[in-house]
């Protein structure tokens, strides 16, 4: 009978260990998801200073009417330097203030080859 109690206690201990492993796995998964969210936020476009209406032509028209320079930033998702611009340059307080005071800032993710983009922007 005593031996039977020991087997039951071992089963309870095994169940507790399995629950601990499951909880630990869930906590690790939540932590990884939180890190991914933070990374996404860190490298996200600076929407607070971007012109958002009417695409390139809309931004161009607003800049023209406001007699401001149009600052265009074309990015590629596959290029880390583009994400670094979002994180390091566009979020700098001095840069943000300069953009707000003197520019209309338009940013887009491009899949078009650079030479074609240059041609499109200079012919319009």
Question: Radius of gyration, rounded?
Answer: 27 Å
End-to-end distance: 91 Å
Query: Would you tell me the overall average pLDDT?
Result: 80
Helix content: 55-70%
Strand order of the largest sheet: 1-2
Largest sheet: 2 strands, parallel
Q: What would the principal axes of the Cα set say about the shape?
A: elongated
Helix count, DSSP H or I runs of 4 or more residues: 5
How many strand elements? Answer: 2
Strand content: 5-15%
* Residue windows where pLDDT falls under 50 for at least 5 positions: none
Please provide the ordered H/E string of secondary-structure elements.
HHEHHEH
- What structural class is derived from the secondary structure elements? mainly alpha
Core attributes:
mainly alpha; elongated; 11% strand; 124 residues; two-stranded parallel sheet
